[in-house]
Amino acid sequence: MANYDGDRPLGPPTNYLRGEWERRDWRNVPGPFYGAATDSCWMGREIAPRHIVYEDEYGSEIVFRQPQDRQEVLLLLTAAWNDPFRAYACDGDIHWTLALIREWWAGRERIAAWIQATCQRMAASEREDERDNASGLRDYAGYLSNGLEAYLRQYGFWLDHHRPALPGETLPDLRLPFPL
């Protein structure tokens, strides 16, 4: 697949998708794409606002919604291409497991609390980019409470079976089988 940013080729993803799993931000939603100590130029939301928000300490980019079609993948690749630190990655499928997804999901209250506190602070900012990030954080909060669980159940099935679930097949439960 050729990758393009407008009329410019993005080049091979291996040139700009060099993030490290161990350095990924804990707020990235499970899936193939994630940010791992990305730049602080705040360009990701300009390119892929339905997929990226910024964390509040360094301004690193977080993938809060995984792409679902070719156009969304292209937007996320373009955001990654624009990261001068080359700290995005798309190797999440080889690292995530259903057990790790369940652990991440079990910690969603921590993510929701972070979203709420950060959104409140950024929404009142004089900076337009911070107010825009607050809008993205509200999208993330909405997705966390409505839609993300279904995506994670489908993603967990895909990881276990290496194919999408067929109609009528049972998707995995995200509850942990035992307390943490």
Shape: globular
Q: In terms of structural class, how would the helical and strand content be classed?
A: mainly alpha
Counted beta strands: 6
Mean pLDDT: 92
Percent helix range: 40-55%
Order of helices and strands: EEEHEEHEHHHHH
Q: In which order are the strands of the major sheet placed? A: 1-2
Radius of gyration: 16 Å
Distance between the termini: 42 Å
Spans of at least 5 consecutive residues whose pLDDT stays below 50 are 1-5
Provide a count of the helices: 7
Strand content: 5-15%
How is the main sheet built? 2 strands, antiparallel
What does it look like?
- With 180 residues, this protein is mostly helical.
- The chain is built from seven helices and six strands, in the order E-E-E-H-E-E-H-E-H-H-H-H-H.
- It has helices at residues 44-47, 70-81, 92-95, 98-106, 108-123, 128-145, 148-161; strands at residues 4-5, 8-9, 34-35, 52-54, 61-63, 88-89.
- The strands form three sheets. Strands 1-2 form a two-stranded antiparallel sheet. A two-stranded antiparallel sheet has the order 3-6.
- Strand 1 and strand 2 form a beta hairpin.
- It is globular and about 50 Å long.
- It starts with a strand and ends in a 19-residue tail after the last helix.
Outline of this structure?
The protein is mostly helical and 180 residues long. The chain is built from seven helices and six strands, in the order βββαββαβααααα.
